[in-house]
Write a structure and sequence with these properties.
The protein is α/β, with parallel strands linked by helices and 404 residues long. It has three domains: 8-88, 2-Layer Sandwich (Alpha-Beta Plaits), CATH 3.30.70.260; 96-174, Alpha-Beta Plaits; 184-198 and 240-401, 3-Layer(aba) Sandwich (Rossmann fold). It is built from 16 helices and 15 strands. A seven-stranded mixed beta sheet has the order 12-11-10-9-13-14-15, sandwiched between helices. The chain has a four-stranded antiparallel beta sheet with strand order 2-3-1-4. A four-stranded antiparallel beta sheet has the order 6-7-5-8, covered by helices on one side. The chain starts with 7 loop residues before the first strand and ends with a helix. Bound molecules: magnesium ion. Magnesium ion binds at residues 188, 190-192, 343-345.
């Protein structure tokens, strides 16, 4: 191979041990070349090392190659020198990058074949693959790149069937410095942070459980207008005592992983908010109990110790949730790209779309179709993988914050 170029690429493959890079660099220094870039990874004990060089004097390249190959043979590794053509540098043209995170059980080979085939058909190049966890849940991160700009929607749409076939949860996020630098998480309460719809529980207390659940289901599926559904349901609660609200607030079931998620995110310096289409009475109680930073919800009007059947103050519907998310990000001085939003209902769609990472959590189909990430398991801790946190990180964090 002619090596007349002043730019070279040295590739080393070896059984990994300390010192291989230092030894290789000794020859590079002797040849007077300039190191432009170094990349390496070790997999199953095998080192793959690439060094890009420029300012190489063509007359010194051949001696470099000979000296390096004699040494490599003696030390039982393989060193190859290629010309480095900048125009054909493999990752240079893939300027538009995303991270596709997969959460799944053990993935069969055919699953890997299928997803990589889908990427290939879309002219998507895989730049890096990393396994974040291989315990109860397998988590894989694919950093993908395209020459032309692509959107999360395009990638997700192509993966719809794959997702269904293998029961995989997927997030597609733009690969920028904001991805690992989120600062605020805004969670929906009912069926997201909590494993119930509080208003349905209130309905049961008021003896109108069935009617209440029916309207709630229609509202959360986007079949009927949120505000009129809310007012109708609040009307059904007329006469319920504040005492019964207190009792209910002490027995609301949290979604598995909620408490651990809060502890870990607080440890990492996140601000945590609940933004709910439910009621401030309950949201305040949860925020106090778990030390959350913000809680925004609808205000039940109470008269003489009883629910009046009306609301007061602004309505937190889909627009209200979106407004609250923007307000909190601005108040804290964070970019919207540093915000994670999590929700399950049709009234969450707008706030999920506004956030840097919007996660549909055990969500209605209408929500899942529009969100860039989804989780279909009842464990809020899974969110952490979408933030780039690995299984090893989680173990350390669990020890620090006290329990998973
Ligand atoms: Mg909800």
């Amino acid at each position: 191979m002619p090596l007349s170029s002043r730019q070279l690429h040295i590739h080393v493959s070896a059984q990994d041990r300390p010192g291989i890079l230092a030894e290789t660099l000794t020859f590079i220094v002797q040849a007077g070349c300039n190191v432009v870039d170094i990349k390496q990874f070790v997999f199953n004990g095998l080192l793959n090392l690439s060094i890009l060089l420029d300012d190489c004097d063509p007359s010194r390249v051949l001696p470099l190659r000979e000296a390096l190959s004699v040494y490599a043979e003696k030390m039982d590794f393989k060193a190859t020198i290629y010309p480095w053509e900048m125009a054909t540098r493999p990752d240079a043209p893939y300027a538009h990058r995303s991270v596709v995170t997969l959460l799944c059980g053990a993935m069969p080979s055919v699953g890997f074949q299928e997803i990589t085939q889908i990427f290939a058909e879309l002219d998507i190049n895989i730049l890096r693959i990393e396994q974040l966890d291989s315990g109860d849940v397998h988590v894989l991160e694919f950093v993908i790149g395209t020459r032309k700009a692509h959107s999360s929607e395009e990638v997700l749409n192509a993966l719809v069937k794959f997702k269904e076939n293998y029961g995989v949860d997927i997030a597609v996020q733009e690969e920028t410095y904001f991805r690992r630098n989120k600062r605020l998480i805004v969670l929906d309460a009912d069926m997201t942070f909590l494993q119930c719809e509080v208003i349905d529980e209130l309905g049961k207390l008021a003896g109108v459980g069935e009617e209440m659940s029916r309207i709630t289901h229609q509202a959360m599926s986007g079949e009927i207008d949120f505000e009129s559904a809310l007012r109708k349901r609040v009307g059904l609660l007329k006469g319920l005592s504040v005492e019964s609200l207190h009792q209910l607030s002490n027995s609301l079931p949290l979604t598995p992983g909620a408490e651990s998620l809060v502890k870990i995110l607080k440890h990492l310096g996140y601000k945590i908010a609940l933004v709910s289409g439910g009621f401030q009475f309950f949201i305040d109680k949860i925020c106090d109990t778990y030390g959350l930073d913000y809680g925004i919800a609808n205000q039940l009007k109470i008269e003489s110790g009883k629910v009046s059947g009306e609301l007061e103050g602004p309505i937190i519907d889909a627009e209200g949730k979106e407004r609250s998310l923007v307000f909190l990000a601005e108040k804290e001085g964070f970019s919207l790209r540093q915000v994670v939003a999590v929700g399950d209902g049709a009234n969450d769609i707008k706030m999920l779309a506004r956030a840097g990472l919007g996660i549909a959590f055990n969500a209605k189909p209408i929500v899942q179709r529009q969100a860039q990430a989804s989780i279909n398991h009842s464990d809020l801790r899974l969110i952490l993988y979408f933030l780039g946190i690995s299984g090893g990180d989680l173990q350390e964090l669990d020890e620090l914050v006290g329990g998973g």
